[in-house]
Structure formats: C-alpha cells, structure tokens
Amino acid sequence: CCHIEPDPSGSDGGDRRHLNKQGVVKIATLINALVDMDYFTEEEEQELFEHAVMLVLDKIEEILPNPIMRLVLETDFEDGVDDKMAETMRARLIDYVKKHVSLPYLDSTDEARVMAAVCAVIVESMKKGRQFDQVVEPVNSGELIIDVFVKGSVGILDSSNKKEFVEAICDDLHVPFVPERMVGWVVGMMVDAL
Q: CA dihedral in degrees (8, 9, 10, 12; nearest 10)?
C-alpha cells in the first residue's frame, strides 16, 4: 500500500524520504470524514484537505531526518518510539508546523485540527507496534480522532464559548432523576478534564 519514496526531484541526491500520494490521500480522507466545510462538495473538500496535508507533511518531512521518517511506515514490534517520546515529539511537531504553515482557506479551528491530525498520524505511526496503514484506518483511529477532534476542540475554547459548549451538550443529555444543575456541573468537569 503506502510507502516512503525517495525525493523524485533528486534535489537532495534522492536520499530524502517522503510519504507517497496514497498516504496523503489516506490522511486527507480521515480528516474529510470528520471536518465539514461550507460551500464545497465532498470532492472539493477532499482536494482541499489533500493540499493541506501535503503542506503540513512538507514541513514535517523537512525537519525530520530519514531514520525518523523510516519509522513512520516501517515500525514493527522491535523498533519505534515509546509513548513518552511520541507525546513529546507530537507536541513539538505541532508547534513547529503552526509556526511555519498557513492554511488560509480553513478557519483557525479547522487549520489547527488539520495540523494536529497530520502530526498525530505521523507520530502515532512511529510508535512500537504501530504502522501507518493501521493508524489511518477509520476502524483503528478512534483514540486519534478523540484526541485531535474532541480534545483539540475543547482546548481552543475560551471561557465564554466553553459555557455554550457545555450547555449544548446538556441540552441533548437527559439523565433521569439527576438535577439539571448537577448534569451541567458533571459535563463541565469532564470538559475541563479533556
């Protein structure tokens, strides 16, 4: 399926490794399934997300050396990074990408989600026992989706829209025999915990 290819331009002597087009499409498809954009068809959204993924990947591939990029698609139970290293690398990659990439056709929330999703997929694929093809399969990406699209959304809430977010959840949540104030308090605590 997907693999890392040498740079076809030869500008780096063919030694740099890059995720192939099929890998870009898989990441963009995962994002497209979770982010809906006004004014565009699904096909147009897919094209926009593929473009965004390529821009983010270009920056990631620019900063990560070949041995690290090799881990993205070639990890097994023997090699790969541990969870602690992965979390550190992911946070640092997201910071780097945010400083060096602009996606003006996305709003700031979707831009942050796309950047975080691409970084998360790349780093998750470097972990011991994980492989790129597994990480981008929707059936296997539940934790990644929650991390990027739920926790990430909560992380961008300020105090005024956090209250609206909690109220929106509570409006759809009916727990028998529990006072509404208690439900609101519990939901608020859960949002804070994310």
A: -110
* Range with the largest mean pLDDT of 17-21, 53-57, 69-73, 187-191: 53-57
Residue 171 burial (CB count, 10 A): 9
> What DSSP line would sit under 48-106, residue for residue?
HHHHHHHHHHHHHHHHS-HHHHHHHHH--SSSSB-HHHHHHHHHHHHHHHHHH---TTS
Identify which of 123, 127, 59, 61 has the alpha carbon closest to the alpha carbon of residue 96. Answer: 59
Q: Which token pair is 178? A: 């529990």
Q: What is the pTM of this model?
A: 0.70
| pLDDT at res. 13 | 43
- Rg of the chain over Cα atoms, rounded to whole angstroms, equals 19
- Contact indicator for 37, 47 with CB cutoff of 8 Å: no
Question: Residue 6 pairs with which residues in a beta bridge?
Answer: 17
The model's pLDDT over 17-43, given as tens digits with 9 standing for 90+, comes to 567 888 899 999 888 887 888 899 999
Q: Using an 8 Å Cβ cutoff, are 28 and 49 in contact?
A: yes
The answer to whether 118 touches 53, Cβ cutoff 8 Å, is: yes
Phi-psi region of 65 (alpha: psi -120 to 50; beta: other; left: phi over 0): beta
pLDDT at residue number 77: 65
Query: What integer is the mean pLDDT of 154-167?
Result: 55
Q: What is the mean pLDDT of residues 100-115?
A: 91
